[in-house]
Amino acid sequence: MSYLDVRQISKQIRGETILDNVSLSCELGEVVGLEGRNGSGKTMLMRVMCGLVRPTSGEVAIDGATLWKDISFPPSAGILIETPAILNNYSGIDNLELLAMVKGIATTDDLREAIRRVGLDPDNRKRCRTYSLGMRQRLGIAMALMEKPQLLILDEPTGGLDDSGVVELIDIIAQERQRGACVVVSSHDKDFLDSVCTWSCHMDAGRLTPPAGKDR
Amino acid sequence: MMVGGVHAALRVLKRTLRASRFERRACCALGALIALGECVGLWLKLLVSEAARAPKLGDLVCAVLAGMPQPPPNPDVLTVIQQLKIPFGWLALMLVAVYLVSAVYPDSQELQGVMVASGSRRACWEGIFLSALISVLAYWASVAAVCLAATLALGGELTFETSTWLPSLCDFTHETLTHGAVRSGLPVCISTLTASCALALAQCALSAALDRNIAFALLAASICASLFAMSPLLMGNLMMASRSAEFVVQGPVQTEFGTYAPGMQLWVSAALSGIVSLAAVIAGGMIVSTRDVLRKDRI
Which residues in chain B have Cβ-Cβ distances shorter than 8 Å to A79? Predict the structure, then answer.
């Protein structure tokens, strides 16, 4: 059994099919890419994977435990979906501290290291309201990384990043893979996915087309 | 499992309180400022009335929570016997409390992050509604602290009993409706506190069901509406000293302008607040437990 097991997921909203019988699996130490144009269902699939959206049919199992049945959310997950939830009145490190309080497993050193890894300064006390789009995206990636999660879900992580940011992100994903995390990353940029993923699949109109040899 | 849930709820509580600390402090300071303004207002009225009487704690508390007297049953009479005087101090005090809950409740994106990190929808809900409750209690504590300080500064007695001059000086209501004897401000305080806590929980449940901005608008509208209608279902009525059974006589009062409703009794306030609180906690828990982030596709 794979660490992340998506089994025949369908999602319909008011008669419209958003996800159509999608199956996918990802092992620890693997990076799976989801490629597809806007509106193809990548973000919806990621929301289903992390328990934020309940599928109309099918199920998602994380390490053998089924979402919405055995567990509410993945027990060890770092998530960046759409825009990161950043509190504008706080500095970057404060934002990380606030989120880390909920689980209580990340140390101050972990938080500082996560900020450094994404190219931000942990000692920068500026409030996040002054952050650029790219800095906010970097902070969102740091939030996903800070607890060294087993499951890392990154939805369009290159959004807002400059070229050096994309290069740093490619390094980070490679490091996470080496650490043994199960990484799912979506992008419309095929070149980016080719540079970071163990394998990637194409999504179109809610249907997933896995590469040859990877279909379940 | 149970202990893990409690720990998760406490961590969410701590995080939510810390994340909203700027807004919470600002609201408490604003509440204290409004209460101070009301206390100064009462002191000035006392000076004008040319009687050197130090207000008791109960006088100041009831002046701060005075609200607006019951409007006449027939709206045509309003301009004849009673001008429409909006109690801006009371209204601001209530609206800041509603805003405070709105500020404490995490926005949609933030809530998703907290839910996933906590690993439990139930723990997340418990942490959030507890933080709203604690924030509201802190807000009223800051208002109470100002009343206490003002009593001490003006040399008044530290008792919840009110003076006989209070209803007329604060324009509580018509002479025919008020008790003449010394009354206690304690039921007014308890009623306000319980109703405010119940409204905070209802606001959290509405925020979970709809959106925190819509919940704020609904609660604010209900508070404003309570100024113009005497019904316990509009819970703003339960937070006005001028509509409390302590100051308005029991039983409906027939006048030439129509029938006035009796004052709000403490047990009504406590029972209603209890029902609203329980319903809000259960309903909010159910909503969050089955929450699908796609608002229009909730389970």
Answer: 113, 116
